[in-house]
Amino acid sequence: MVYNPVHGLPFLPGTSFKDTTKTAFHRSQTLGYRNGYAVVRRPTVGIGGEWLQVNQLSQAELDELANKRPALTYGQPKQAPPADFIPAHVAFDKKVLKFDAYFQEDVPMSTEEHYRVRQVNIYYYLEDDSMSIVEPVVENSGILQGKLIKRQRLTKNDRGDHYHWKDLNRGINITIYGKTFRIVDCDRFTQVFLESQGIELNPPEKMALDPYTELRKQPLRKYITPSDFDQLKQFLTFDKQVLRFYAIWDDTDSMFGECRTYIIHYYLVDDTVEIREVHERNNGRDPFPLLVNRQRLPKILVENAKNFPQCVLEISDQEVLEWYTAKDFIVGKPLTILGRTFFIYDCDPFTRQFYREKFGITDLPVIDVSKKEPPPVKQELPPYNGYGLVEDSAQNCFALIPKAPRKDIVKMLVNDNKVLRYLAALESPIPEDKNRRFIFSYFLATDMISIFEPPVRNSGIIGGKYLGRTRVVKPNSSVDHPDYYGPGDFFIGAVIDVFGHRFVILDVDEYVLKYMESNAALYSPEALSSIQNHVQKKEPPGPELENKQTEEDPGTRELEALIDTIQKQLKDYSCKDNIREAFQVYDKEASGYVDREMFFKICESFNIPIDDSLVKELIRICSHEEGNINYYTFVRAFSN
């Protein structure tokens, strides 16, 4: 061993000396390999294998020396530099919080279990706040298990906020992707970490167990075949003996349900039951022969047999307290078989004899279950909406594509071109409306009414059509069942309410009088007498004298010939039916004469060709010495 004389001297200026005895100056290796990767290795000795004093200090002492600054005797001391920043992926690398949880899952199509409890582990990675959910794999579970949710950041609300380790605790529910997980416990590291951050942990809970899994852990039952009575004797006695019942299943209370007919066979040899459905031709159903195959039917089950897997296994005697027997099938009583209620309404003669000999039942009735036609439902129309006629609006309730209401063709053919015309005045508090006159036209073919106002020059009112053809409803009549005006409502002095406007009938034409006389049943006696008296008072003496002169005076022959000639020339004149009514409006005294000025105004309003030579001659003949004109004779040339 070589003695080093400078060993142990303090490393201060003036006390450091070069070791003259040192002969090795090699450096230690700083590279190495670990698991096939090149890594940096920190040297443990100095140059030439010299002992390093720095290796004798701990990491905490080295950090303190690195950050230590000597204190000054005067002046402001310098602050120590801040600690080195350590990123989260370095500080929390491989630090994971683990929670034990479970969630409940519904099992809709199973008679053995209604829900399933699945246990999971929730992992929270502190380095990036991501989470993953893993379900431990259970052997022969038949469920895809393992990683349910891969590692990712999970949102906790609709605003996009993510779950943080501050949101996790024992005894709480968290919802992830529509599934609710119940956290029951956590591991030791998770508990220490959360408590170090100031979070108070709830007490741990017990993990919920899956009831079906616990049921499978129970030991299997042992079945022992019980002894029974002599089945051979029953076979020899009742072989080929079958009771036949006729039943129906009424399913009309459900949607699209109907009443079906079935035949129930009860086999006495082994107390089994078979149900067959009776099919009819073109009933729209598949012709399956059997509804219930031949089998023993349970009547009363034990309490714990409700969850028995009937769709997989047959019901044994241990799940049934009582089976259906022959005494349960009685005519006239309902019978519930496998959840469906049948009503037995008849049986065959052998069945009646069997019940009479075996049970002493002699009065098995025959019940009539034939379907009776329901009473017709009266169709009720919705309230009238006010648009169009009531008959037209009602067609929308009878068919998807409305059709025009039926019309009385016979009435339209008989009364074609038959029009009743009346002269009326408007009842109004306005002074300008007192002298207005209107002509009502009642069309017998369609029972429609039109109103025409003769134009009067310089009256300030535009005449013409006042109301088009329509049916007018009487006041105070029902909206759904309206009462329209008819021919019997029009007579002298009658008040006609046309959509809120009141009109008083003042005069009628000659055709109305003839129609009333031929159809007196439609009018009251007072209406007939009022119109007849009015017409008699209205007839002027001029036409009567003219009729007498026709026989005596040969000049009247020329007048008749002139009228015939004018009628032939003006046979297509459109307003010839309303000329007489227009003159009567201004003839207040019903004398049959009007002054010349008013006469020419009315002729001009109707566009009568007064410049024609024949018409001028007719005006000259009808003129009176006092300057008035006899319009009764004049309108004969323009009437039908």
UniProtKB/TrEMBL annotation:
InterPro entries: DM10_dom (IPR006602), EF-hand-dom_pair (IPR011992), EF_hand_dom (IPR002048), EFHC1/EFHC2/EFHB (IPR040193)
PROSITE patterns found in the cross-reference section: DM10, EF_HAND_2
Residue ranges annotated for the EF-hand domain, each copy included: 574-609
Main location, first listed in the record: cytoplasm
Biased composition (Basic and acidic residues): 536-556
Keyword Repeat: yes
Highest rank taxon of the organism: Eukaryota
Region (Disordered): 533-556
Annotated keywords: Cell projection, Cilium, Cytoplasm, Cytoskeleton, Flagellum, Repeat
Subcellular location: Cytoplasm, Cytoskeleton, Flagellum axoneme; Cytoplasm, Cytoskeleton, Microtubule organizing center, Centrosome; Cytoplasm, Cytoskeleton, Spindle pole
Residue intervals of the DM10 domain: 93-198, 239-359, 416-520
Gene Ontology annotations for the cellular component aspect, listed alphabetically: axonemal microtubule; centrosome; mitotic spindle; spindle pole
Single GO MF annotation: calcium ion binding
One GO biological process term: mitotic spindle organization
UniProt xrefs under PANTHER family: EF-HAND DOMAIN C-TERMINAL CONTAINING PROTEIN, EF-HAND DOMAIN-CONTAINING PROTEIN 1
Complex formation: Microtubule inner protein component of sperm flagellar doublet microtubules. Interacts with the C-terminus of CACNA1E. Interacts with alpha-tubulin.
Full protein name: EF-hand domain-containing protein 1
Lineage start: Eukaryota, Metazoa, Chordata, Craniata, Vertebrata
